[in-house]
């Protein structure tokens, strides 16, 4: 073995391989295809990447692993997250531990970047049917001595005669299929035309369908609507975690990764492209019957065979990659740039100019996207700063610019995007909510995956905690402790948490633990390591990680920061527009579909309005991509709106800091919540 | 070693490798990168692919080669070309000999496909300067908080303000360069715009030049003009043999190769793309100073270093591949289709419909052409049948459709293309001249390479032969025999030959050897193998192949067929147009630049006209490509003319056969050549 290399084995996955000595354990995990949580992008501040370096001789793997085979313990960085007892048993932060020799690394469950449960279902919004890719069936005469015109011109003549299409270009890859398609179809052919401009596919005879995908690349989640372009129907919704999460949780961490790592942009871009291809695969796979291994007869040899097992009465579309003839994509400016391998550096630096605002038509093949070889993808335009193509998607789905009513649209993701206004004027801005509302930068925060606490109720009298985890219908109080298998808290649980902590008087309106009231409460304690107060939500026996799941004073601060940023953003935008009240508050994003509207108001997530005026609009960014897929006029509309929303850079507004600080209070101002009487205990409401 | 494979070594090149048993020697030579002449495309009729199978144990190579390691002798096919003596020493036809075991194959000089000497210089034709790719320099303000517009929109605004360009698209690969270019250029940038539609390049600061190539893909020769798009100047002319020649000499042989060989189209296409890339490389290399190996100091080790040695007073353009921003391409329909991987099968079958007539704009990267990543290539449109984009090139260079005078334009290549008419009407047709006029299908025919006889004079009295070879200035009679090193006869020599044989009374006007007159002449004899009469042009001692170079009765027939096809084609087209005479006869193609106009008339290559009306227009197809490169309006003109030339399928004209037979006579009709008196001896003219 090369002297500069060391063997690394990850457990429990068993992944193994050689890496250059000197790389850290996170880097090694990436190289070997193991996902370790790295929410802070290796800034050494999240403590999510704890791993255990195993000591001993592992004959099975032919290596000897020693704790000295990684770089020495860093007291300043590691003691914050790793207890003395953990340290003794070999725990280290993967981001600071460099490989120095052969090691076997155990990745505990809470450090694994799990597969997220995503719920971004397609809403039923009205979309006019006018897709960019349309199919046309024509029949032509075969060539003859008197009329020996070439295949392409023969078809073009037919398309002009029957459908009035003129001056069509043709993609060279499509053109290669034409002679065979025409002859196989006995001089009849189905032609796929993009934007009435370019032929992208020839199929022999009459074809009835063509398909498309609308994809929203979120910082954390990628969701795709798989649609039938000819019927407008949504066939399937597929989603995945953004594979770039391993490079950092939020947009700034990703931009930093690009700026500090040679080839970082390429890596992140390649990862998302690869991810999208697997998402496309997944969508296609679902259109075929499941496969089962054929049982072998006695004594039969040879490789396993698989056979399709169609469900009774079910028909299968059997879609191929070549059948996917259009694709629309949205994402915030950073996701947009990284996806397209456009330098995202300057989007992250004041005054935050993107490389491009305008939408782009790009051949899928030029990006390595595996759909029809000649197909284009349509990338939605960006607004400004981090308010990108995803927000344009929200806008063309919701169309506030066509309405008299004033709406505030909040897209809560890792980055918060705000739009306020109506047909007369629209302004937008972004606020760094950070990933706290999605579960990151929280001691036991996690993504919405099985084991995540998603609902919490705290009894205001006993201050006992009840909760529900993803993957189990029964709440804690109706379950055996060991059945809960709690692992952490996800986004929706976090907002519940803040509201419940406050409602139960555990924290004050300024977010400080109510020490006096809590003394001697079994769930309240001071952490011996960091001397910080914490409150136990689930006991170790209820968890699958063999630890008490707690909320810390720092966690409460993080949540306050997030909600403060959102609230202050809304307030400042209202001030800009000179308005006191909105007609509608629309909450978009996965968070929006889960959040309890009352609790959001209690917490002061956004300025006051009647509860019935609050509407969850789900994955509106994705809906906008779908609108652009199904109606090409929406593409022009997207470009228009992207240049006609006025972007407000909140951080340069006067008294931004002041507003922000105030907004961190819970609730912001009592007298603005008259409708909360009865919902929130009088004592607390009067704080 | 795999039992299904055998080791093959080619000498004298020394190329070696394993091939599947069962493939023939030609195929093996292709796989191992050795070029063996295969003029007939392995139809077993040209006899050009003679090789010698060496017998013995070749310790040096670790193999034992036996003559039985190739398939058995085929009497019918091989005895026609291989004498009993040659057979005895191991000669075989490479196209019929299949590899059965390890062999060492010697490829004699006359069977090697040599590097051709090509003379396709750029003519000085008038071209309006309006290239499809233009460069624009602009300066913009840097982004600020009040004006945070993105890079692309910032540049677009500048282009609109300064140059009136609007609605520009941008290639994604170019866009990736923009942020860096803008900042490196301190907010000034040079933008390359294609057809006022799409930005294909950003360069920091002010750039002065951009470059383009105009390429004519001939069946046998590929020629490229390397041009400065900004100054219209031709920087260099580079050329090469079409690497597809190894698959067959003429268009039908190539089409047959596609139809009979799996992946044949891909192979031929890949070969021409690879060839074009090397041609591009060659053009670029010429813009740098030559390199010399640096002498090592005494005792110095390490790899060789090379340094540039500029010629005094010479400046070098130092062009990179990225600097080549446009490329235009023409070729006959078969070359066009094979280059683009379009199925050429149906162009070869009546009624010969091409896949497409219209011109194509294709991203160079989609074809694997290594020029600027975002650049397009422009492929000229096709007319009909085999009259392709090359003939359109001839037309837009010569513009007969703008003139009152009636011209006959003859493009003589492996395929002959004819255009007749003026601004009121133009007709075109093609005739299968075959490769005889280029030296193929002739016993000692060869390409215009060193050693090829290119001029012949036969004394009418003594019937002794004088000649000149390529690569040597002195004629035979002023040289020592051993200095001639003759190898064969090339195209221009062949037309000389027919005229001289006739002028000296060696053949009659019907093309038959004048046996009675030749009896006892030392140069005249009956070949003992095929019992055919032949006439010696160069004795073995004057050759580099140690053989008498002869012209056979069959050769004369081949030449007659070629010239008959051309002559009959011209006649039939004139009849179609109801005309007796033209104002101009223009001869295009490499052949045209070499041919002796008088002899061409004597031989009846085309209908009679005054000698001063005959004009050689050189590589007019290439000139047309250059016109399209430099003036985008020529592209529209090309599409217009390609659809407005009436194509005549000669072979279906009534009495085509009759006309053809008559045209094979030499000269066609005496009374039509009054101006030949004095040029041709009276006796012969009266035959």
Provide key terms for this protein:
27% helix, Ubiquitin-like (UB roll), alpha/beta, 687 residues, 6-stranded mixed beta sheet, homodimer, Nucleotidyltransferase, domain 5, globular
Concise synopsis of the structure shown:
The structure is a homodimer of 687-residue chains. Chain A is α/β, with parallel strands linked by helices and 687 residues long. Chain A contains 21 helices and 31 strands.
Per DSSP, what share of the residues of chain A sits in E-state strands of 2 or more residues?
Answer: 15-25%
Mean pLDDT, all residues of chain A = 87
Q: What strand line-up does the widest sheet of chain A have?
A: 14-13-12-17-19-18
- End-to-end distance of chain A, in Å? 68 Å
Q: What would the principal axes of the Cα set say about the shape of chain A?
A: globular
User: What is the makeup of the main sheet of chain A?
Assistant: 6 strands, mixed
Query: How many helical elements of chain A?
Result: 21
How many structural units, i.e. domains of chain A?
4
| Total count of strands of chain A | 31
């Amino acid at each position: 073995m090369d002297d500069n290399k060391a063997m690394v084995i990850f457990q429990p996955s068993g992944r193994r391989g050689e890496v250059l000595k000197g790389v850290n354990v996170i880097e090694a995990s990436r190289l070997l295809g193991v996902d370790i949580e790295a929410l802070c992008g290796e800034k050494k501040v999240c403590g999510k990447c704890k791993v255990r370096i195993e000591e001993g001789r592992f004959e099975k793997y032919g290596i000897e692993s020693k704790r000295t085979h990684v770089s020495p313990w860093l007291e300043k960085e590691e003691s914050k997250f790793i207890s003395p007892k953990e340290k003794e048993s070999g725990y280290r932060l993967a981001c600071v531990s460099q490989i120095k020799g052969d090691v076997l690394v155990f990745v505990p469950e809470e450090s694994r970047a799990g597969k997220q449960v995503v719920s971004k279902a397609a809403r039923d919004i009205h979309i006019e049917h006018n897709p960019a890719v349309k199919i046309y069936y024509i029949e032509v005469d075969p060539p003859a001595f008197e009329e020996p015109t070439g295949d392409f011109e023969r078809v073009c003549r037919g398309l002009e005669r029957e459908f009035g299409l003129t001056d069509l270009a043709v993609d060279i890859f499509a053109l290669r299929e034409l002679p065979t398609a025409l002859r196989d179809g006995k001089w009849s052919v189905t032609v796929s035309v993009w934007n009435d401009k370019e032929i992208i596919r020839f199929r022999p005879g009459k074809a009835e369908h063509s398909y498309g995908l609308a994809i929203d690349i979120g910082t954390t989640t990628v969701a795709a609507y798989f649609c039938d372009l000819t019927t407008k129907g949504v066939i399937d919704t597929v989603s995945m975690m953004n594979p770039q999460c391993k490079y950092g949780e939020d947009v700034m961490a990703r931009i930093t990764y690009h700026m500090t790592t040679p080839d970082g942009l390429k890596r992140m871009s390649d990862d998302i492209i690869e991810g999208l291809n697997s998402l496309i695969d997944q969508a296609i796979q679902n259109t075929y019957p499941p496969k089962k291994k054929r049982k072998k007869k006695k004594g039969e040899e040879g490789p396993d065979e698989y056979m399709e097992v169609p469900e009774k009465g079910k028909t299968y579309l059997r879609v191929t990659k070549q059948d996917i003839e259009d694709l629309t994509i949205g994402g915030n400016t950073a996701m947009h740039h990284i996806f397209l391998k456009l330098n995202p550096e300057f989007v992250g630096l004041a005054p935050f100019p993107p490389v491009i605002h305008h939408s782009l038509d790009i051949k899928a093949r030029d990006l390595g996207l595996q759909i029809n070889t000649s197909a284009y993808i349509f990338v939605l335009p960006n607004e400004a700063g981090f308010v990108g193509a995803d927000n344009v998607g929200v806008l063309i789905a919701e169309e506030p610019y066509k309405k008299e009513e004033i709406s505030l649209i909040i897209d809560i993701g890792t980055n918060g995007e705000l739009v306020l206004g109506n047909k007369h004027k629209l302004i937008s801005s972004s606020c760094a909510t950070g990933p706290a509302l999605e579960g990151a930068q929280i001691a036991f925060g996690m993504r919405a995956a099985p084991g995540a606490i998603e609902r919490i109720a705290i009894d205001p009298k006993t201050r006992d905690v009840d909760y529900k985890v993803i993957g189990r219908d029964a709440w804690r109080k109706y379950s055996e402790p060991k059945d809960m298998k709690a692992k952490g808290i996800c986004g929706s649980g976090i907002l519940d948490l803040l509201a419940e902590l406050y409602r139960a008087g555990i924290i004050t309106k300024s977010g400080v633990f109510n020490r006096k009231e809590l003394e001697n409460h079994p769930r309240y304690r001071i952490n011996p390591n960091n001397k910080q107060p914490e409150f136990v939500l689930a006991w170790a026996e209820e968890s699958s990680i063999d630890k008490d799941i707690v909320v810390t004073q720092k966690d409460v601060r993080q949540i306050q920061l997030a909600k403060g940023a959102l609230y202050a953003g809304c307030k400042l935008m209202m001030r800009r527009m000179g308005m006191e009240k909105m007609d509608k508050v629309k909450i978009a994003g996965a968070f929006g579909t889960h959040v309890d509207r009352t609790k959001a108001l209690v917490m002061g997530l956004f300025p006051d309005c009647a509860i019935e005026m609050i509407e969850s609009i789900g994955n509106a960014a994705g809906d906008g991509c779908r609108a652009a897929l199904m109606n090409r006029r929406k593409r022009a509309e997207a470009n228009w709106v992207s240049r006609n929303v006025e972007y407000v850079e909140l951080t340069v507004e006067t008294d931004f800091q002041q507003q922000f600080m105030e907004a961190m209070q819970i609730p912001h101002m009592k007298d603005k919540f008259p409708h909360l009487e009865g919902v929130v205990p009088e004592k607390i409401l009067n704080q």
